[in-house]
Amino acid sequence: MTYPQKSRTTNLLLNIFHRLHNHFGDQHWWPAETRFEIIIGAILTQSTSWKNVEKAIANLKHERLLDCQSLVTIDEKKLAQLIRSSGYFNTKAKKLKAFVTFFHQRYHGNLNKMFAVPLLELRTQLLSVYGIGEETADSILLYAGNKPIFVIDAYTKRIFTRLGLVNPKVTYSELQTLFMSHLPPNPKLFNEYHALLVALGKNLCTKRPRCSSCPLNTLCLYPR
Description:
By secondary structure, the protein is an all-alpha fold. It contains twelve helices and no strands. It has helices at 6-24, 35-44, 50-62, 68-73, 76-82, 89-107, 111-115, 119-127, 134-144, 154-162, 172-180, 187-203. The longest helix is centred in the N-terminal third of the chain and has 19 residues, at 6-24.
């Protein structure tokens, strides 16, 4: 896939970012008390709303289970009931178990050790864990590890398709490359940019978009 000239694309991406930031402000994402909590949230948020994830995490905190060793030892069926609000709770319990087993065996539950591994090497390791796909792996790397990698989700694809910047059949890696090859590798920028796209996708660029209120409407092909 080819993109417009690099400087032009960079300017456009930064223009989009600044318009979103001026409209929505700082997003303070990811909402969590610890890096480990971010990782658990990234797994639980698959195919559900963040409100449902918050309930599940609150249950884990109440039971004092929000640490690697506790999640390694807890019975999987009990874990599934505690995270029931997140949906697909039996499957997600298996995913959590798979991650904490990997984390415990390879890194002895030490996040500093895990995030000391080079970005692409750690990404490959995470993708080998049951239940962790590209979006979840990249969320862990960016939000918990402060690594310079851009997270792509359904909102990002919808927004950039409507803007006319990518084909509807664009792949995850193609859309990620658009951001990472034209923006400075700054985790803070990637963090805020992705969070702003989520805010836009949830509030304005919905399945039935509110184009008249969108800060990107003069850039977008969709209203026309």
